[in-house]
Amino acid sequence: MDDDERIREALSELLASHGMRAIAFGSAGDYVSADKPDVPACLILDVELPDINGLDLQRQIAAGDHPPIVFITGHGDIPSSVRAIKRGAVDFLTKPFSNSDLMAAIDAAIAQDREKRSERADVGVLRQRYLDLTPREREVLPLVVSGLLNKQAAAELGISEVTLEIHRRNVMHKMAAASLADLVRLAERLEIPITHSRRTGGSGA
Q1: Given Cys at both, which of 28, 54, 114, 129 links 47, Cβ 3.0 to 4.6 Å?
Q2: Considering the entire predicted model, what is its pTM?
Q3: In this chain, where does the modification 4-aspartylphosphate occur (predicted)?
Q4: For domain 133-190, which architecture applies?
């Protein structure tokens, strides 16, 4: 994304020579409104754009699933570069930059995006497994991963220990967890809130 057509053409040609498909935008508005291909990618972003500052665009799209950003600018300064990198930019290149430096930054950004996409896909599978649990099994899961004993978790839900053990086995099976430690890690990835801690005394102990 650059307001200089010559820069856009040069970058498109460079990327094409490396077997990469590029889509050029002259403004932030064009980028935001465009349909993006669902593939590993990166956003090469100029700091100075006709409709918005590139750093402001970075902040605005931060909450969504956007590709990693490589900044390019003809007016670079240390505060801007620090601000961009702190917000997750892969690199901040000042014009004129070498093709090798740009391609290294692009390769790093695409690798990062590929990893993020893989992580999102894995979490999506885990989330579907969680949704396949029954309402009672979803109540059992956080109690189990919090470290409560079976009798403590059963007392918490007002069910028998035998029934709790059945639900626990079902949770382990449906979540494809090989062990309790594995189930704890899966729950952490799903950001399931843990509201209990293991107790050695009290009701049901």
Answers
A1: 54
A2: 0.73
A3: 46
A4: Orthogonal Bundle (1.10)
